[in-house]
Amino acid sequence: MAGLATTFGSGAMTNPIADIDAAQLLFLIGTNTTEAHPVIGYKMLRARRRGARLIVVDPRRTELAELADYWLQLKPGTDIALLSGLMHIILAEGLEDQGFIEERCEEFETLRDTVSRYTPERVSEITGVPVEMLYAAARLYATTDRAALYYTLGITEHISGTLNVMSCANIAMLTGHLGRPGTGVNPIRGQNNVQGACDMGALPNVYPGYQNVNNAETKAKFEQAWGVPLSGEIGLKIPEMFDAANRGELKAMYILGENPVLSDPNTNHIRSGLEKLEFLVVQELFLTETAQYADVVLPGSSFAEGHGTFTNTERRVQRVRKAVEPLAGYADWQTVAAVMQRMGMPADYRDASEIFDEMAAVTPSYAGINYPRIERAGLHWPCPTSDHPGTPILHVGKFSRGKGRFQAIEHVPPGELPDEVYPFLFSTGRVREHYNVTTSYSPAIMARWGEEHAWINPEDARRLGLAEDSRVRVASRRGELETAIAITDRVPSGMVWMSFHHAGSPANALTSHLVDPVSGTGEYKVCAVQVEKLGS
């Protein structure tokens, strides 16, 4: 994003996780790291204890917000305005890295002109963050030599998610916080192999290694490698798939290891799309809410039941080794290969390593990686040759595209805001005890966090006549649910927050149908709801 080449645009961390120890300042925006990524969160807590400074941007008072030098409690969906306001201050006070900008960036004047309109007073009005807090955070980030920015779904799960990411890149380039240890723009991936799945081409517009499907030369390369003709047309994103299914245009789906009935926004739209399919295959470990719609359920296998690789959030390609034999008799790759063979595609692989070698042969960023090289320790891509050491830090000395391009980005309000009928702002996220929507099948975990609670501010609870554990009905324009409440000042007045882990109170029955026009990511973080007290 923001002209920092396809490797950065893919959502990969520019710096390794170990760089948390090298950073003098951690700038966290849209990430509740200790809950959603507890291992990385622990490293951040350790860095804070050893003296690293901390800026946290979050509407909720999280564990890290309580420890921050500056907690910027912004209104949800105002990240662009906030970052533009910080850049306004940095430029007004001459704190930008002029040498970095002149040597490594372009379109600087375009950025300067745009952020000139985001005065601290205007930004404070948009975001709710006090002017003096904006000045303090801007000065600290700009004047710290090794400052690293981290973000997660609080940045991307908006209709402006792509623009939010570009704004993060803008402020890092403006201050020269890229291409060195202890710096960078670092998106923390939401699951253990999301990075690897994207790297392998599990996106509608690219082949493995982010090679565009509509590029004639790339298309020809993959046709030769795979021995089949390819369309060259960009496919559908997940929201577009369910839109097409609801229109009757998409007839079949094969869902592997996903439970969109719980995890995707606007649950009723997802359910109706699945009902309209003519044929649905689900490959899963459990008979999930989505699998219950399937015509055919294939047995899934866990990470412990097969050989393979994961590519984690820092772009490190790592070996995964079988700990137990697959309970169903097949690892996931074997099941997929068997389906391919029955569809007429040769897929007689003897081992997962053969699949990896085939992929690496057509993927420049993985070309130098093979199983023997990562037997004991992983390698960071890009790793283009067999003698290349890997690339822990991206953009050292220069950007892949040449110069990093600043983007002119204007504030985009959320697609749906509270009003008289739906007066509360609703937002979702994760809790430490659960992992997405799969751990509800674990009796041990459910014993620790067995019921969902909607978080409500004490002021709102008093006004609605609610007590701790009161039952409420929460409704949006798309659906409703019943849940208990937790009264806490960790959320501001006017906001309701829930996790999405529990089938009994599915938060995504409420979330917005709106998506980012570029990424297709749903606006999970902002929609409007009403809250009604239920009887005893």
Quick recap of the structure?
By secondary structure, the chain is of the alpha/beta class. Strand 7 (206-207) and strand 8 form a beta hairpin.
Task: Please characterize this protein's 3D structure.
With 536 residues, the protein is α/β, with parallel strands linked by helices. It has 4 domains: 5-188, 3-Layer(aba) Sandwich (Dimethylsulfoxide Reductase, domain 2); 190-233 and 301-386, Rossmann fold (3-Layer(aba) Sandwich); 236-293, no CATH class; 424-533, Barwin-like endoglucanases (Beta Barrel). The strands form 6 sheets. A 6-stranded mixed beta barrel has the order 16-20-17-19-18-21. α5 packs parallel to α11 and α14 (238-246) crosses α16 (267-276). It is globular and about 65 Å long. It starts with a helix and ends with a strand.
User: What is the CATH architecture annotation of the largest domain?
Assistant: 3-Layer(aba) Sandwich
Give the termini distance in whole angstroms.
Answer: 51 Å
Mean pLDDT: 92
Global morphology: globular
Main structural class: alpha/beta
The CATH class label of the largest domain is Alpha Beta
The number of helical elements comes to: 20
Helical content class: 25-40%
Major β-sheet profile: 6 strands, mixed, barrel
**Cα radius of gyration in angstroms:** 24 Å
CATH topology (fold) name of the largest domain: Dimethylsulfoxide Reductase, domain 2
Give the arrangement of secondary structure elements.
Layout: H1 5-9, E1 25-29, H2 33-36, H3 38-49, E2 53-57, H4 63-67, E3 70-72, H5 79-92, H6 98-104, E4 105-106, H7 108-115, H8 120-127, H9 131-143, E5 147-151, H10 153-156, H11 161-175, E6 185-187, H12 194-199, E7 206-207, E8 211-212, H13 216-226, H14 238-246, E9 252-256, H15 260-263, H16 267-276, E10 279-284, E11 296-299, E12 308-311, E13 316-320, H17 332-342, H18 352-361, E14 379-380, E15 404-405, E16 424-429, H19 443-448, E17 453-456, H20 458-464, E18 471-475, E19 480-487, E20 495-499, E21 527-533
Parallel strand pairs: 1-2, 1-5, 2-3, 4-15, 5-6, 9-10, 10-11, 16-20, 17-19
Antiparallel strand pairs: 7-8, 12-13, 13-14, 16-21, 17-20, 18-19, 18-21
Helix pairs in contact: 5-8, 5-9, 5-11, 14-16
